[in-house]
């Protein structure tokens, strides 16, 4: 990440960086400081007393879906504020997404990636195995631009030994072809696509280094590369992330033990939003898509942000 270390401040004639003082250089030019992103209002608790909330996803009509994993329930938060159950037999659904067909995609930790018709609630299995073996426990999902989906498959709630032997990232094509697109990753969890569709982000939970994968014009995925390093709680060195969301400017919002850590597309941390409980996942909604919804253990929270979500 050498390019990411170039930001610095001019102070009394010498260059001061976060990593030490460099020699005075008459040709060096000051660069603009990183733009920080902060919440524009206090965090609000919408509801509580769940077992473990995850997977927030907002439909075009403003309806918020989120999961309560141990209770196998997918909940709906209506625009008026009422919460009701969409299904109570979700296969321990975790990550959710509303795709361009207005289907509710769900990663069932019981071993499947599925799609629900939001009106009829009809459930369709999109993928349940790779090379003849069930997935470990699908965790989070993001659609591609060709009618397929990327999803993570770590170890949480998976049978032992792991059916897939390793924890990895997969792609399901529109036609249903399943491809493993990564080598072993330390608990791949959250996943997202850049606004231009050229970068896939993967958030491991057992390492502090987040990953990115280049995506070519033909849809093929290149090898992983380091993207950013998470800020760590005091006394810890390898606490990873969980879920993630993106805004329209390509900034990443990653749920961590410290809260929502925000990184720009260059991998520089530009914000931190503390949440009363350890957040698991995050998305954007509201009329202007500037409301950040956070699922955090037993609670569902919202907070106003300055930039619209993707």
Indicate the topology.
Elements: E1 9-11, E2 14-17, E3 20-21, E4 44-47, E5 53-58, E6 64-68, E7 73-77, E8 83-87, E9 93-98, E10 103-108, E11 112-117, E12 123-127, E13 129-130, E14 133-134, E15 141-143, E16 149-153, E17 168-172, E18 178-180, E19 188-193, E20 199-204, E21 209-214, E22 225-229, E23 244-246, E24 252-256, E25 259-263, E26 269-273, E27 281-285, E28 291-296, E29 299-304
Antiparallel strand pairs: 1-2, 2-3, 4-29, 5-6, 6-7, 7-8, 9-10, 10-11, 11-12, 13-14, 15-16, 16-17, 17-18, 19-20, 20-21, 21-22, 23-24, 24-25, 25-26, 27-28, 28-29
Describe the structure.
This protein is an all-beta fold and 310 residues long. It has two domains: 1-33, no CATH class; 34-304, TolB, C-terminal domain (Neuraminidase), CATH 2.120.10.30. Helix content is 0%, strand content 44%. It has strands at residues 9-11, 14-17, 20-21, 44-47, 53-58, 64-68, 73-77, 83-87, 93-98, 103-108, 112-117, 123-127, 129-130, 133-134, 141-143, 149-153, 168-172, 178-180, 188-193, 199-204, 209-214, 225-229, 244-246, 252-256, 259-263, 269-273, 281-285, 291-296, 299-304. The strands form eight sheets. The protein has a four-stranded antiparallel sheet with strand order 4-29-28-27, with no helix packed on it. It is globular and about 50 Å long.
């Amino acid at each position: 990440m050498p390019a990411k270390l170039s930001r610095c401040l001019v102070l009394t004639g010498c260059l001061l960086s976060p990593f030490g003082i460099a020699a005075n250089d008459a040709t060096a030019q000051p660069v603009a400081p990183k733009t920080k992103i902060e919440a524009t209002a206090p965090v609000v608790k919408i509801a509580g007393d769940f077992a473990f909330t995850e997977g927030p996803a907002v439909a075009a009509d403003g309806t918020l879906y989120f999961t309560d994993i141990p209770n196998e329930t997918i909940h709906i938060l209506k625009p008026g504020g009422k919460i009701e159950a969409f299904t109570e037999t979700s296969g321990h659904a975790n990550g959710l997404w509303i795709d361009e067909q207005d289907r509710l995609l769900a990663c069932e930790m019981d071993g499947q990636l599925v799609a629900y018709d939001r009106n009829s609630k009809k459930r369709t299995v999109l993928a349940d195995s790779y090379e003849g073996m069930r997935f470990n426990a699908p965790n989070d999902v993001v659609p591609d631009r060709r009618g397929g989906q990327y999803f993570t498959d770590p170890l949480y709630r998976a049978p032992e030994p792991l059916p897939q032997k390793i924890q990895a990232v997969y792609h399901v094509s529109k036609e249903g072809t399943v491809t493993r697109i990564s080598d072993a990753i330390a608990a791949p969890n959250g996943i997202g696509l850049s606004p231009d569709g050229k970068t896939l982000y993967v958030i491991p939970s057992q390492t502090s280094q987040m990953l990115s994968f280049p995506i070519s014009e033909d849809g093929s995925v290149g090898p992983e590369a380091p993207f950013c390093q998470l800020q760590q709680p005091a006394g810890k060195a390898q606490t990873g992330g969980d879920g993630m969301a993106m805004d329209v400017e390509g900034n990443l919002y990653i749920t961590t033990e410290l809260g929502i850590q925000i990184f720009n597309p260059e991998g520089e941390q530009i914000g931190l939003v503390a949440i009363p409980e350890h957040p698991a996942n995050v998305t954007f909604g509201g009329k202007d898509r500037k409301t950040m919804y956070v699922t955090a253990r037993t609670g569902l929270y919202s907070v106003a942000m300055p930039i619209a979500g993707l």
